[in-house]
Design brief:
This protein is mostly helical and 382 residues long. It contains 15 helices and no strands. It has a domain of 97 residues. One of its GO terms (cellular component) is plasma membrane.
């Protein structure tokens, strides 16, 4: 992972200008200096174009092995023409192919997870619907969720078989939003509510309850972080109504996590880890800071706010954060990411079309940046 970065050569700050500045050789500076009202529309258009490309490519990979040649061609087209009219026409053509592939494939996906699978594409469609109110995005989101639900409903093992341990692991995965069925049920319920489908809403809520009841806190390794650790579990619990006894248990657990905080403000990734080396959303300060901010909001205890501030300091000192840097990175994605990936100078991701490891995440970032004050971490914040 150490080699997967691109040097940050952007200036610390670029002042916005009402008039267009003359930057013949630096299109990135032109983007950075645009008034944000104009820039947000540019990011929105680029995000929606890229969303259609993600839809075409990711679902083609998930739904039909015969589509690899098309995927390669479409990826090259996107790289050359992102944000142009030709890109829009190619995205539309790709969408038509996917519709045909979707029908021919029997609506069967290979990976139903939000993290790297088809549910991430559905989540991106839902985000686009929230911005544009386009019911086509919402309906397609619902179709993808149904296919994901079909796969994860059939992926378990029988407890009567010799694979009881594998069943336990499957049950534990079911309880996670990012990699399990809980994510399918949660997004399914939100989509059904927007569609006004009470029967489908009831179904997804009942399935979510079942997944939650079967969820086991696996003992192979005790993680602390947001993705699949103790902080993430506490974060979800703080979004539901707790009785006094439950609230005390959550607060007690959170204070236990604080005891593990390093002097730097960072956290270890797991109970067996005593090294202050990772600064990742999944396992350390970036994700856990969000949990403690939520705790300060819910419980009003200064100790949680202090822990959140200390964690945020660790992120600030050792990572990229802040409003201007988020804006600069979004502009960088629009202006240069596709070219750098095509030339092999920047890593395209292990799952190059997914929400968390690919261009799906780029599209989500651009859509989020159109209204940055409403931005929330996908699959974690409500």
């Amino acid at each position: 992972m150490g080699c997967r970065f691109f040097p940050n050569e952007m200036p610390d700050f670029v002042e916005e200008k009402e008039e267009e500045i003359a930057t013949e050789d630096d299109s990135l500076m032109k983007l950075l200096s645009m008034p944000y009202s104009a820039l947000s529309e540019r990011l929105k258009r680029a995000g929606l174009d890229l969303k259609d490309t993600v839809l075409s490519l990711s679902l083609s990979l998930s739904l039909s092995p015969l589509m690899y040649t098309y995927v390669e061609e479409a990826w090259i087209i996107w790289i050359v023409t992102l944000g142009s009219k030709s890109c829009q026409s190619e995205s539309s053509r790709g969408l038509e192919v996917v519709v045909e592939t979707w029908g021919l494939s029997g609506q069967c996906v290979r990976d139903f997870s939000l993290y790297c699978g088809a549910l991430g594409t559905a989540f991106l469609q839902f985000k686009a619907y929230q911005l544009t109110n386009n019911k086509d995005d919402l309906n397609l989101c619902s179709d993808i969720i149904k296919a994901c639900d079909s796969l994860c409903s059939c992926s378990g093992f029988s407890h009567s078989s010799a694979k009881v341990l594998i069943q336990c692991i499957e049950d534990a995965r079911d309880g996670t939003f990012l990699c399990g069925r809980a994510g399918v049920c949660a997004l399914g319920a939100a989509t059904a509510k927007q569609l006004g489908d009470e029967q489908l809403l009831t179904y997804h809520l009942s399935q979510f309850k079942e997944a939650r009841e079967r969820f086991l806190l696996m003992i192979f390794e005790r993680y602390w972080g947001a993705a699949h650790g103790l902080a993430g579990i506490m974060h979800v619990l703080m979004h539901v109504k707790l009785n006094p006894e439950e609230a005390e248990e959550v607060k007690h657990t959170l204070k236990y996590i604080i005891k593990k905080q390093f002097p730097s403000g960072n956290f270890p990734s797991a109970a067996a880890d005593n090294e202050d080396h990772l600064v990742h959303w999944c396992h350390s300060a970036p994700g856990i800071a969000l949990t403690f901010l939520k705790a300060a909001e819910v419980f009003g205890d200064e100790v949680f706010l202090e822990a959140a501030v200390n964690a945020a300091e660790a992120v600030w000192n050792r990572g990229l954060t802040g409003w201007h840097l988020a804006k600069a990175f979004a502009c960088f994605v629009v202006d240069r990411a596709s070219k750098l990936i095509a030339e092999g100078e920047m890593h395209g991701g292990d799952n190059p079309y997914s929400l968390f490891e690919g261009i799906g995440g780029m599209a989500y970032l651009l859509l989020d940046m159109t209204k940055p004050t409403d931005a929330k971490f996908p699959g974690y914040e409500l």
